[in-house]
Amino acid sequence: MTEPTRRDPRAEIARLIDIMAQLRDPRTGCPWDIEQDFASIAPYTIEEAHEVADAIERQAWGELPGELGDLLLQVVFHAQMASESGLFDFADCAAAISDKLVFRHPHVFGTENRDKSAEQQVKDWEAIKAVERAGKAERGTLDGVAMGLPALTRAIKLQNRAARVGFDWPGATEVLDKIAEETAELVEARDSLGPEALEEEFGDLLFVMANLARHLKVDPEQALRRANAKFTRRFQAIEAALAERGRRPEDSDLAEMDRLWDQAKAAEKAAE
After folding, report:
1. Which of 82, 206, 95 is nearest to 154 (CA)?
2. What is d(CA 147, CA 145) in angstroms, rounded to the nearest whole number?
3. Which CATH number fits domain 9-92: 3.40.50.150, 3.90.550.10, 1.10.287.1080, 2.40.128.20?
4. What pLDDT, on the 0 to 100 scale, is given for residue 1?
5. Secondary structure element (H or E) that encloses residue 185, with its range
6. CA 20 to 30 Å from 220, out of 15, 87, 166, 172?
7. Within this chain, domains 9-92 and 140-218 share the same CATH topology
8. What pLDDT does residue 187 have?
9. What class of enzyme is it (predicted)?
10. Would the CA dihedral through 125, 131, 137, 139 be positive or negative?
11. CB under 8 Å to 259, separation ≥6 — which residues?
């Protein structure tokens, strides 16, 4: 990995903000950038955050600065549009997160003792966030959990909030029992109910699976990303094995591809 350059971060941030302003200039800017609004840019913001996570998952450190830069651009883009509308600007965004960090870390920036466990710090963090939510008139336990989060991530956050007030299973064993119950209901829906009921039961099963991940202290998004990567890796091994024989997957059948899958799986195990 190359050594980081000695650039001035303040100067580079100022340069990026200026570039974005030029791109949005109604007379001389880029037509595509000028046409965008908060709603049209929001999907790109989510996409760039996922690409950052992907680079980290792959340990692609050479790609990470570029991916983080793409994500930073999203912040600058939203801030520029807000500035044009007289709502806020980039400085307000930076000030908001700086103020929040200072407020949420009284053991670093205030007079509280730093000598406490990570578990106690998490409890203190949640108490501070509760004060913040009260200031926003978020009275309900589940208020403020963003609707735009990936569904699995939002399920975990909703369940964590409910658990704080005692609405939770005692442990993973009870969750596993619930999974068996939901699976039976899904089978019943498949056999006797319509598509809407089937979707509802499938959603219930996914929600409980997310709860199991929480009790097992597993990040379900990361677990599924890794499962996706494993599937991709092994299926590509099937394609490579067939290509050596001058064939493609559509020229094969399930039995043969299953055998090649098992071979790819065994090769991975042997390499561990």
Report:
1. 206
2. 6
3. 1.10.287.1080
4. 53
5. helix 172-192
6. 166
7. yes
8. 92
9. hydrolase
10. positive
11. none
CA 91 to CA 87: how far, in whole Å? 12
| 8 A C-beta contact, residue 223 and residue 213 | yes
Beta strands in the chain, from DSSP E residues, in sequence order: none
C-alpha span between 237 and 220 (Å, rounded): 26
Residues 6+ apart with CB under 8 A from 242: 248, 249, 251, 252, 260
- Asked if residue 90 lies in contact with residue 78, where contact means CB atoms within 8 angstroms, the answer is no
pLDDT in tens, 208-255: 999 999 999 999 988 998 899 899 999 999 999 999 999 999 999 999
C-alpha 170 chain-centroid distance: 27
Tokens 């883009």 found at:
77
Convert the pLDDT of each residue in 180-219 to its tens digit.
999 999 998 888 888 888 999 999 999 999 999 999 999 9
- C-alpha span between 77 and 38 (Å, rounded): 9
Residue pLDDT, tens place only, 28-67: 999 999 999 999 999 999 899 989 988 998 899 999 999 9
Domain ranges for the chain: 9-92, 140-218, 221-271
**Count of C-beta atoms within a 10 Å radius of residue 155:** 22
pTM over 0.90: no
Token readout for 266 is: 């065994």
